């Protein structure tokens, strides 16, 4: 299952966004208001939980400065990645888009598609808080 957020323009440099997203504790700033739990569990991982959904542990998997950051599920039960693609527009303006890729059975995909789509849309929309 592949989902993508709308492309969001942010009044920050690509390097600033890259540096901010490279520090996992900053993800708390862009989480939806419905967040029930956020806990940093290392320099490259955090656990978060949204109301009504199971907790998810995310870990930094790949960083390509200043354009790409890949987070992945730390559990093999629900294998997925969340990729932030950052494009420089000007020195102080960037476009950010999030891509979710997961391997789920058809039933699971049907259940999580809506909530995950809304989740990545919210994360992207909150990028200006970084």
Automatic annotation (TrEMBL):
The keyword Transferase applies. One of its GO terms (molecular function) is glycosyltransferase activity. The keyword Glycosyltransferase applies. SUPFAM superfamilies: Bet v1-like. Keywords: Glycosyltransferase, Transferase. This is Orotate phosphoribosyltransferase. It comes from Flavobacterium psychrotolerans. The lineage of its organism: Bacteria, Pseudomonadati, Bacteroidota, Flavobacteriia, Flavobacteriales.
């Amino acid at each position: 299952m592949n989902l993508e957020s709308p492309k969001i323009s942010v009044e920050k440099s690509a390097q600033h966004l890259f540096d901010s997203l490279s520090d996992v504790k900053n993800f708390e700033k862009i989480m939806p208001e419905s967040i029930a739990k956020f806990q940093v569990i290392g320099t490259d991982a955090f656990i978060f939980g949204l109301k009504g959904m199971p907790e998810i542990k995310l870990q930094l998997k790949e960083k390509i400065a200043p354009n790409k950051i890949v987070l992945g599920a730390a559990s093999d039960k629900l294998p997925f990645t969340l990729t932030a693609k950052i494009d420089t527009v000007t020195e102080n303006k960037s476009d950010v888009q999030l891509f979710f890729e997961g391997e789920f059975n058809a039933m699971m995909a049907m259940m999580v598609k809506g909530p995950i789509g809304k989740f990545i849309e919210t994360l992207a929309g909150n990028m200006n808080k970084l």
